[in-house]
Amino acid sequence: MRDGRVIDVAVEQLGIGDVVITAPGEQRPIVWLGHRTIDCTRHPRPEAVWPIRVLPNAFGEGLPDRDLFLSPDHAVRVTVLDDVLIPVKHLLNDATVAQVPVDQVTYWHVELDSHDILLAEGLPAESFLDTGVRAGFENGPAHMVLHPDFSPLSLDDFCLPLVQDGPIVDAVRTRLIARAMALGWRLTSEDDLHVLADGVAIRPERDGALARFRLPAGARDVRLVSRSFVPERVRVGAGDGRRLGVPVRGVAVIDGHGVTRALPIDSGLLEAGFSFVQDGEWRWTTGDAILPAVLWAGCTGSVTLTVETAPDRGTLHAWLAPPAQAEIAAALAA
Fold it and tell me: Could you give the CA distance from residue 245 to residue 263 in angstroms, rounded to a whole number?
């Protein structure tokens, strides 16, 4: 609220003492603004700090009304019989609520004199509540100096019940998936399997379960790439939180002399980008699997990489964006 007028203001342009309108319509002054910039490339678990993007209308018409980026632990208000708060990281579906890998991100948090619900791009989301994390903000120590009697609040100070698992969360996730489909998202079993050889995409020749790739001479960084999915994010109750790409039975190369070099599927060289071996004969990739250069080391000229998939063991169910959303994503990636 500025000069008696209610206007939308970017969070980084707010100031202490500014009056905001809460979701219930009350006027509340800002008592503190926290901010922190995170180098995600140096974080031991970058998925713990990557922002989560909520697409327009993901929770309903105008909820939110524009792209909204939240930290994983930021809670949003939803209604399942009663109003509750759910951290957005528990509502991921990889479609309308999806994590965005970034190298760096700056998070802002707005604190009122007590915990409340604000509107972020039209979506009800919590204000800042310190549960002992204030020191993690770049300007956190300044607040401690200004308020020497400050002590961290507890979960009892949430303005609404905080729910992080169980049937309420499952109900909201089911609702979000149904909403995504209503917005034009659909599931596909087409894996888009290809190889990235030193950053260059190579498409396969496919013969049933066998995919063949012609690798250039001297290839160093070779990755087996495909669409991927997390079963629990496309079907609530699936009970599998792994990221899965394609099921694979074997990997081999054939050199220019026709000599085949193969790795057993349980080889310790197949680690980065591979899940555990199942039934002793196959394993999922994660959608971005590193292939060991020892397979083609010393080969001259081009070699043929062969990948035997196991479609009888598992089927991909990856989200496809509606055309309009796909065009936006392509433009942002360009």
Answer: 19
